[in-house]
Specification:
With 155 residues, the protein is an alpha+beta fold. It has 5 helices and 5 strands; from the N terminus they run E-H-E-E-E-H-H-H-H-E. A 3-stranded antiparallel beta sheet has the order 1-2-3, with no helix packed on it. A hairpin with a 2-residue loop joins strand 2 and strand 3. The chain is globular, with a radius of gyration of 17 Å. The N terminus is likely disordered.
């Protein structure tokens, strides 16, 4: 039903979606720096995202299976390298970011995984992370506006 895109199925995954750390300036202790992977960020052909499943019946739907993101990464240390070449975004996703409803939608979604919900301290424990996601969403919206990127009704 699902096929992998650039990853091997392991019981425990210890690397990132962007294993080259192109979306920010990494610390020298990061594996991507130690393994000289960060140097590949300059060549788009070398970039590879991992930990994504694609539904064969609907390849436009991606499933992110491992969150190795860094929500505490400084906003000043973000860049849009991974977005190079993307010239359109789903209108529905952008409208959610613009609506001011992202927090409530994320809380509703996260509540469905009761074990995760409880382990994070419920809504009060998740709000700091959700506020970071909202903040990053605003930055993404500004990037979309600055680059005059197109919105598509159905990607």
């Amino acid at each position: 039903m699902y096929s992998s895109v650039g990853w091997k199925c392991n019981s425990r995954l210890n690397d990132r979606l962007d294993r080259y750390c192109c979306g920010f300036t990494p610390d020298p202790a990061e594996l991507c720096v130690e393994n000289l992977l960060h140097t590949k960020c300059g060549n788009t052909k070398d970039l590879l995202l991992v930990h994504i499943l694609v539904k064969k019946a609907d390849p436009s739907k991606l499933v992110f299976i491992d969150n190795a993101g860094r929500p505490h990464q400084s906003i000043d240390n973000l860049n849009f390298r991974l977005l190079d070449g993307i010239d359109q975004f789903p209108e529905t996703a952008v409208s959610v970011l613009q609506s001011g409803c992202l927090e409530s939608l994320l809380l509703l979604s996260l509540y469905t995984d009761k074990e995760f919900w409880d382990s994070q301290g419920g809504a009060s424990g998740l709000r700091p992370l959700i506020h970071t996601v909202e903040s990053r969403g605003k930055i993404l919206l500004q990037h979309i506006r600055d680059k005059k990127l197109q919105l598509k009704k159905d990607l």
